[in-house]
């Protein structure tokens, strides 16, 4: 267990894959910014000298054989105990000097502090236009669905409380994990704080591991899955309403023909329309039931998180 809050322990978490060009500087920068923190580098099957360089700089190096950033974060959250966690990438795009302020916000009581790239230099520094478009698309979609105002949903620079880390279920396996974190926090009404940071693009010789199309599809599928799980009434109810309306329109055309001719000329259309209406109503009912279950899950999560925080304070 972490120490008492009057002497908080801080862990810096750096998931890495082939970052030998930058990892040494990143470790040094965080050591200077947080001299009393433990710095962990989790090597995710790197084929270069990432692990040896990090160890030479004094970082605690561990290896995670399951490929993917989500798998690495799951391992880090399971293995490491601290009062405050700071997570960043090993590519030297995030400023370590923002970490003390992020730690201070967690100690004030926030569950997650988000290093906001998009309010400062991200769009000037990032040379990949589809990444910029993807950030805007994801931000607009999630904020609209959850009624939130989070600026940078996909940032990899974050700070967490002990309670957040130990109660957050990491389901994603890849880069979509940051989106999952944000949706999880919004759905459970956790305390978030956004702190603008000065983002910088990768230095020369450092290669991005992001696949614009592949990882973009994974992020969108994660959003789709989490909307289905966290917002079942809009998801299933909306789908059911559309299907039912199509059925009503088809029924209306058959009814109009019957009014004018006194005959039902298109029985297959009528039967299909009735099936669409029934299917739509069933989806709406399913959405209502699942929405009640989702709300009960949120209540259970909040009660468990509060109990977890209480037990932590007592130790």
From TrEMBL:
<keyword id="KW-0808">Transferase</keyword>
<feature type="transmembrane region" description="Helical">
    <location>
        <begin position="233"/>
        <end position="255"/>
    </location>
</feature>
<keyword id="KW-0472">Membrane</keyword>
<comment type="similarity">
    <text>Belongs to the glycosyltransferase 2 family.</text>
</comment>
<dbReference type="InterPro" id="IPR050256">
    <property type="entry name" value="Glycosyltransferase_2"/>
</dbReference>
<feature type="transmembrane region" description="Helical">
    <location>
        <begin position="267"/>
        <end position="290"/>
    </location>
</feature>
<feature type="domain" description="Glycosyltransferase 2-like">
    <location>
        <begin position="12"/>
        <end position="165"/>
    </location>
</feature>
<protein>
    <submittedName>
        <fullName>Glycosyl transferase</fullName>
    </submittedName>
</protein>
<dbReference type="InterPro" id="IPR029044">
    <property type="entry name" value="Nucleotide-diphossugar_trans"/>
</dbReference>
<keyword id="KW-0812">Transmembrane</keyword>
<dbReference type="GO" id="GO:0016740">
    <property type="term" value="F:transferase activity"/>
</dbReference>
<dbReference type="Pfam" id="PF00535">
    <property type="entry name" value="Glycos_transf_2"/>
</dbReference>
<keyword id="KW-1133">Transmembrane helix</keyword>
<dbReference type="InterPro" id="IPR001173">
    <property type="entry name" value="Glyco_trans_2-like"/>
</dbReference>
């Amino acid at each position: 267990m972490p120490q008492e809050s009057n002497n908080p322990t801080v862990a810096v978490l750096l998931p890495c894959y082939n970052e030998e060009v930058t990892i040494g500087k990143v470790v040094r920068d965080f050591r200077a910014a947080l001299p009393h923190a433990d710095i962990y580098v989790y090597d995710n099957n790197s084929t270069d000298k990432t692990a040896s360089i990090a160890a030479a700089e004094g970082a605690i190096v561990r290896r995670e054989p399951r490929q993917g950033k989500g798998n690495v974060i799951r391992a880090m959250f399971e293995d490491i105990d601290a009062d405050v966690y700071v997570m960043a990438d090993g590519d030297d795009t995030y400023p370590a000097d923002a970490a003390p302020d992020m730690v201070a916000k967690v100690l004030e009581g926030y569950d997650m502090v988000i290093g906001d790239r998009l309010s400062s230099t991200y769009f000037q520094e990032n040379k990949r236009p589809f990444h910029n478009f993807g950030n805007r698309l994801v931000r607009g979609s999630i904020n609209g669905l959850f009624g939130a105002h989070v600026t940078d949903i996909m940032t990899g620079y974050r700070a967490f409380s002990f309670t957040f880390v130990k109660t957050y279920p990491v389901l994603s396996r890849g880069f979509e994990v940051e989106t999952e974190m944000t949706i999880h926090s919004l759905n459970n009404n956790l305390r978030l704080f956004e702190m603008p940071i000065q983002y910088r693009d990768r230095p020369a010789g450092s290669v991005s591991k992001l696949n614009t199309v592949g990882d973009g599809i994974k992020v969108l599928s994660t959003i789709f899955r989490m909307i289905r799980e966290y917002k079942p009434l809009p998801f299933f109810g909306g789908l059911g309403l559309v299907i039912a309306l199509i059925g009503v329109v088809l029924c209306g055309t058959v009814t109009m023909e019957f009014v004018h001719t006194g005959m039902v000329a298109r029985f297959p259309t009528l039967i299909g329309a009735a099936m669409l209406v029934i299917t739509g109503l069933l989806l709406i009912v399913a959405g209502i039931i699942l929405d009640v279950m989702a709300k009960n899950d949120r209540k259970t999560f909040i009660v468990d998180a509060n109990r977890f925080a209480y037990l932590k304070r007592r130790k």
